[in-house]
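Chapter review: from sequence to fold.
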Amino acid sequence: MIDRTQQLAPPQEAPGLPVRPAAGRWLVLLVVFVCAACGLVYELELVALASYLIGDSVTQASVVLSVMVFAMGIGSLLAKRLRCRAAVGFGLLELALALIGGCSALVLYASFAWFGESRVVLVFFSLVIGVLIGAELPLLMSLIQRVSRRDVDGTVADLFAVDYVGALVGGLAFPFLLLPWLGRLSSGLLTGAVNAVVGGLLVLCLFRRDLTPRSRAWLLAANAAVLAVLGTATLLVDDFERAARRAVYGDRVRVAVETDVQEVILTGGPEGPLDLFLDGRLWVSARDEHHYYEALVHPAMRGPHARVLVIGGGDGLAAREALRYPTTASVTIAELDPGVVALARTDPALTALNRHAYRDPRVRVVTGDAFGWLRTARPGHTAVWDVVIVDLPDPGTTRGAKYYAQEFYGLIGGALADGGRLVVHAGAPDSHPRTYWTVDATLRAAGYRTTPYRATGRLSRFAAGPERATAAAPAPRAWGFLLAARGEAPPLGLAPGGPALRSLTAAALAADAHGAGRTRLPGLAPSTLIHPRYGE
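The token string follows.
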């Protein structure tokens, strides 16, 4: 027989709460929501900053998320020892998470700027933050049971549901709200402050009677200290960024712009050599850029070149070389970042370097995703180009690996005129032969015949990749290119009667083609959107 009197008896509520059990339950769930949002912001912040500093966003996301998930399991186990004193344990946990998570981006950036290495720091913060996040839910479960013991199964479901919703809000707030408005560093500091305030209010207000007077005093002092540290760091973050930029780029930083796409840095000029950095990587150096751009553009201009398309190249330097031919009728620049184009139009040193290419009436600019632009273009609504120049970062170190995929080259092939030529910057064949010859295999799979070549003359001390060059790992001494066409492989040479060049000669091209060919790796598979091969 069922004892209905026992079944209908009201559950025992924990005495001593300053609010009703129902209100206390909702307050705990609100804290679960905020903590989940803060935890995901910490994760995404580490992924975003690591991708910027180290490169290869897929690898960095995999490292951060996998280490964090593993550490969360450890944190859940360690939380068992704190459940007997859940209130004070949760208060200390949130303080540690606010301080470590809030300052993680600062420390990660500092390690890169002053020591040139950030991988160890990235793994450390992923592990520690994961442990702290993993310990939150068990302690919050103990606290919500302290408020009310009714419907334990329903409480667990509510706890996890609110946790997932909070993660959703945090995941959306970071890219659409925090990052655009506050930047990478201030976002973490503000998140840490929110974490500390919410955790402290829950423990010191709702569960204050679970604490001894001494514990309350220590928690109040610790909260004040953590908020003071985070507030001071927020006030000094601009000075910190300037000091870190000087450590990375030297004392010649003249322009620092955070566009919607990337961070753009200009150093030097007009009195010293100009350097252009995109997301921390040297893209243009006035000391040796002519070696790169002459080799990129002029071999492709041998043949019909009235209509030229430059993919990337927002700095205007590839267009500068194409415009040196009087027979060039139009140059279209398809650039993802309008901020780079604006800088190349207005900055005195950069406009002098590109010889005011954007003032030439033959130049037309299309800003946006070149992949989508080529894909949606319809015959009759777009030009057919004689020359297509792909002036993009190395495929193994950029988020834009889709621009080195077989599908993208197929789109370009549909826009090439009969006898048209495509030239691709494909990385260094000497130091990264697998990346270089994967681009070659991808072009061939898309129906092209290719002519490999390279250009020497690199003078800059920065690697063509995600890390700064050091004495132990100097920058590659050559750039690699692939000249491609439908039908027969295009001959390598210079246009008869073309403009006088500073460094490139037909003899140098022949020698560099032979040097690139000696690095060939046969049997590589092409890269596609579904299966990107770069970095394997």
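Two observations follow directly from the output. Confidence is low (pLDDT under 50) at residues 1-15, 461-474. Residues 275-517 form a domain with the Rossmann fold fold (CATH 3.40.50.150).
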